[in-house]
Write a sequence for this structure.
């Protein structure tokens, strides 16, 4: 790249600024969920004040997939059937998915990316719970999985030609996409993704997780460890696509910590059919409701 770091940062900031705003209601949900004194009623009230979010939730909850014995007509009623954490994660997912474009000039498959992100989010949360990973709050793991690759969306939408070249380079030379981005663009999607969640006013810890998700996982937080493993499982099992399908082996310290290689971790998680089906449902709902 011939441009200076300052010029590159200016272009990245301009691209991030063009992304749609994140719904204030979901930002408020995240704030409340970190308050130990917050009641479920407070969270439900915030969601119900967002008519678009409420409509999307009720549409999915009344789908054939859930088949509840009677129609769900309110967010409060949905909490009784599914629990507050599930509804919170569903609201977060729909808010993120609502910012995705359907098409882009880079030829990046947004729907396959979307399925990858949703399954990675669910798997990161599952890994944190199944293995009781210290310093890995399940909600933070879900958010990190959902948003970790969002920088690719920024590139695909607003730096399309360079991102297309990076996708091609990654494929032709069998190198990681973030390494190809560094060669073509001068930085990678983890940097611009962190900039995006900062714009969206997520807690600073989330932007740090996204910025560091390609670092050696044994030297970082429990959330990054869960995200790394979930990302490899999602790629290994072919859940959607993130732009580069290469699966990284677990570092020796994680093999010891989790009792085996990636295949062993997958076996330890048990049946993940429901998780995948829910991800597919959310992805389909997004396809129907994103304009």
């Amino acid at each position: 790249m011939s441009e200076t770091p300052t010029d590159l940062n200016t272009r990245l900031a301009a691209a991030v600024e063009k992304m749609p705003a994140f719904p204030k209601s979901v930002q408020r949900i995240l704030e409340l969920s970190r308050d130990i004194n917050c009641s479920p009623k407070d969270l439900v009230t915030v969601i119900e004040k967002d008519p678009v979010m409420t409509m999307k939730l009720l549409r999915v909850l009344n789908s054939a997939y859930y088949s509840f014995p009677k129609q769900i007509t309110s967010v409060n009623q949905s909490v009784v059937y599914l629990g507050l954490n599930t509804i919170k994660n569903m609201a977060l997912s729909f808010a993120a998915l609502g910012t995705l474009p359907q098409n882009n000039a880079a030829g990046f498959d947004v729907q396959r990316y979307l399925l990858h992100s949703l399954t990675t989010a669910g798997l990161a949360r599952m890994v944190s719970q199944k293995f009781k990973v210290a310093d890995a709050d399940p909600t933070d793991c879900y958010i990190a999985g959902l948003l970790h690759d969002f920088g690719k969306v920024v590139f695909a939408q607003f730096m399309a030609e360079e991102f297309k070249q990076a996708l091609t380079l990654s494929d032709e030379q069998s190198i990681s996409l973030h390494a190809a981005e560094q060669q073509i663009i001068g930085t990678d999607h983890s940097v611009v993704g962190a900039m995006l969640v900062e714009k969206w006013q997520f807690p600073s810890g989330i932007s740090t997780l996204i910025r560091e998700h390609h670092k050696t996982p044994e030297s970082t937080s429990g959330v990054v460890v869960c995200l790394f493993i979930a990302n490899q499982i999602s790629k290994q099992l072919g859940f959607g696509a993130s732009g580069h399908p290469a699966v990284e082996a677990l570092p020796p310290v994680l093999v010891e910590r989790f009792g085996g290689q990636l295949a062993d971790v997958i076996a330890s998680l048990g049946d993940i059919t429901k998780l995948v089906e829910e991800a597919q449902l959310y992805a389909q709902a997004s396809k129907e409701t994103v304009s």
Observations:
- The chain has one domain: 12-289.
- The mean pLDDT is 89.
- The domain at 12-289 is CATH 1.10.3210.10 (Hypothetical protein af1432).
